[in-house]
Amino acid sequence: MNHPVGYAADSRLRWTEYLPWIVAIAVFFLLPNYLSLGARVLTFILFALSLDLIVGYAGIVTLGHAAFFGTGAYVAGILSAKLGLADPILQLLAGASAAGLLGLVTGAVILRTHGLAQLMLTLAVAAVCLEIANKATPVTGGADGLSGVTVAAIFGQFRFDMYGRTAYLWCLALVFAGWWLVRRLIYSPFGASLTGIRENRLRMQSIGAPVYLRLLTVYTIAAAIAGVAGVLLTQTNQFVGLNVLGFEPSGELLVMLILGGVGRLYGAFVGPLVFLIAQDYLARQFPEYWYFGIGLILVLVVLFARGGILGISDALLRRVRGRT
Amino acid sequence: MDALLSSLVSVAFHGVAYGMILYVISVGLSVTMGLMGFTNLAHGVFAMAGGYILVSALSRFDLPFPLALALSFVLVAAVSVVLERLLYARLYGASELEQVLFTIGLIFMSVAVARMIFGTLQQPVELPESLKGPLALFGREFPIYRVFLIVFSSSMIAVLWFGVERTLWGAMVRAAVDNRAMAQAIGINTKRLFTITFAVGSGLAGLGGALGAEIIAIQPTYPFEQLVYFLIVVSVGGMGSLRGPFVAALLIGVTDTACKYWLPQFGAFFIYVATIGLLLWRPAGLFGKSA
Amino acid sequence: MSAVIETRDLCMRFGALTVAEKINFSLAPGDRHALIGPNGAGKTTFVNLLTGRLAPSSGRVFLGGKDVTALSQSARVKRGLGRTFQINTLFREMCVLDNVALGIAERRGLSGRLWRPACAHAAVREEATDLLASLGIADEAARRVVDLPYGKQRLVEIAIALGLRPTVLLLDEPAAGVPSLESERILRALDGLPAEIAILVIEHDMDLVFRFARRITVLVQGEILCEGSPEEIAGDERVQRVYLGERHA
Questions:
Q1: I want to staple B29 with a disulfide (CB 3.0 to 4.6 A). Which of A57, B15, B43, C239 is the partner?
Q2: A129-164, pLDDT tens digit by residue?
Q3: What stretch of H or E contains A97?
Q4: Is C touching B (3+ C-beta pairs, cut-off 8 A)?
C-alpha cells in the first residue's frame, strides 16, 4: 500500500514520523566514530527521496537518475578544485541548479516518450554524462577523479572537522530540508495529481490535467534534489570520481529504494540505511557474497515482498492489529 | 589517399564484424521484448555466460573450438529454460519497474558469481591455430578470425531468418508478437512458445558472446557495461523486429569503430547522442511499429 | 440555436480501412441523444475523435463554435467536454472520493498547487461528497475503487465526468458489463443528469436507449445511416434490417 495522499488523507505528522530525526540526533551524540558512515547514509537518503518522487509517485521508471547526482557532485568538485570556489552554499546552489537544468532539458525530451524508448533515453543520458566525465580529463580528472576538493566553513563559522561532525550535521540539515519539501509536495494537490498520473494517465488527460507539464515539473525538482545529494557527497568525501555516474549507481539506488519500499516516503529512509550499513559491514568481509546477496534480495523482494521492508512491517502490523 | 582508403576499409570491416556480433547477441532481446513484453535487462548475462563457457572449454578442458562454440549455445539455452520456467514466467504480467528490478537483481548475482569463479580480469581467448593470423583478400590483409566471424554470423543469421520466415515456430512467433491475445485465442500454446523462443534468443546471445569474446572482452562487469549497446540495438532497430536490429547493429558497429579510431577522445559520445536523436525522431525504432 | 459540439465532414482512415466517413453531427444544449449501430460501426472511434484521443484524417470538430480539431484531450476538457469510457478507466488503488476530487480540483485550477495539503481544501472535498450523494454512492467515499462492485464503479466513472461540470457529456456504453439488477441505478443516474448539459450516449441496451434518448443517430460502417426520434428510428426499415430485431419492429 502506498503512502496515502490525496483529498481524503490526513497530512498531520504522525508520532512515528519523529523517529528518524530522533535517531539521527542520537547517532550524533552516541556514535561519534560512525559519523562519516552516517553522513553517507544521509546523502543517499536524500538521493533516494528524489528518486522516489519520480519512480514512486510519478510512476516513471528511470535507469539514469545518477546523471543528476553526478552532475551535482562534479559541479561542486570542479568549482572547488579547478576554480577555487570553496564556499559550501555556493557549491550547493550551483550543483542544484546544474542538475535541475539538466533535468529540465532532458525531461522535456524524455517525457514525451514512453516504454522502451523512454527507458533507453534515461540510460543514454546517464551514459553520455559518464562518457563526458570520463573523457574530459582536464576538467573532470577523467578516470582518476577529482581530488583536492576543499570546502570552506559554512557561513564562515562551522569548519568541516576531521571527525566528520560538521559534515554530518550539514547533511542532516539538508536531508531535513529535502524531506520537508518532498513531504509538502506529495500531500499537496500537485502530489495528488501525480498519483493520479501514475495510476491512470489516460484518465488524468480526460479530466483536463496537463500531464506532461506536471511530470516535467516533478522531474526537474527531483533532479535538483539529486544534485544537492551529489554536492553533499563531494563535500563530505572531498573527492569526486566516476562512480557517481552511469547505470551502476542508478541501479544501486533503485535497489535501496525497493528495499525500503517505493512510494512510501520513508522507504527512502529505511532502504539506504539498511543497505549502506549492511554494505559497510558485509562488503568488507565478504565482497562477492555481499554483491550476490544484494541481487538475491532484490529478486526475492520483487517476487515475494513488493512493498519492501516497510511493506512487510505494514503487513505484520495489520496482522497484529487484527488479532487484538 | 591510399592510406585513407585503407583505413576506411579497415574500419568498415571491423565495424561490420562488431555489428554482426552485436546483432547475434541482441536479436534474442528484441524478440523477447516484442514477444513477451518483458524488459530483460539481464540479457547481457547470457552473452557473458557464453563467453565464459567458451574460454573455459578451450583453456581448462582443451575442447576443440567447434565443440566449445556449440556448448556456448546449448548450455546457455538450457540454463535459460530453467530460469524462464522458474522465475521469469512469474513476472510476465508484472509492471515494468518490477521487471527492471528483477533483472537488475539477476545481473548483480551473475556478476558476483563470475567474479567468484573467474576473478576480475579479462579472459584471454585461445583461438585455434587455423583461425589465427592474417588472410590476404583483394590485395589487403584481414585477420582470419574476423572474416570467420562475419561468415559464421551471417550463416547463423540466415538460419534464424529462415526459421522465422518459413517454419511453423517462426509463424507463431510473428503472430504472437503482432497480437498476443489473438494468438492465444487461436490456440497457440504461448507458454511453450515463450520458453522455446527465450531459449533460442538466449542461446544466440551465448553464442554471440563466445564468438565475440575477442571484440567484447569477457569480464564480470560485462552485463553492466554492454547493456547500453544491446538496448540501443533493440530500441533503435525496433523491438520485436528482426531486420531492424540488424541494420541498427551494423550502423552502431561501424559508427562506434569509426569514432574509436578517428576520434578516440570522444569515445562513445556520438553513439549516445545519435541514439537520443534517433529515438526522438522515431520512438518506435527505425523499423518498429508505433504503439 | 448554436451547437455545443459539432463535426463537419469528419473522416478517419487507418490505411485502407475507413472507420468514419464524412460524419456531420451536432448537439444542442440540453440534448438527449443516443448513438447506436452494430459492433464495429465506429461508435467508440467517433467518441475518440470528438475527445481528441484520435486525430482525424480530415474534417473538423467544433466545441462551442470554436475549432478544436488540433487541441489535445486536456484542452478540450477545459472547454467543457466530458466523457466516460466503455471500460472503467478509474484510479483503482485510490478511494472513490479522490477519484472524483481530482477532476473537481482540475476544474477549479487547484491541481497545480504545490503548497497547502490537498486535504485542507475542504471545498473540493465537500463538492465531491455532494456529487457522490447525488448518485447515491456517498457512503462508498472512503473505499478503494478496486474494492467496489462493477456497477458502482460505473457510477464512479460517471461521477468523475460530472465533476468537470461539462457542457457536453459523452457516455460510452454506461451500462456495459453491469448486471441488470444494478443497471437500474445507472438509469436513474442518467435521468437525474443536469438538464442543460448536452448528452450523447453510445449504447447497445435498447431499453436504455429508448427510455433515455429524444433523438437517435444510427451509425453503420463509419457512416450515418439515419437520424430521428425514437419512433422514427424504430419504424425505419433500413435500421430494422441492419440490426434492431423483431421486438422493436
A1: B43
A2: 998 999 888 888 888 888 888 888 888 778 877 778
A3: helix A88-110
A4: no
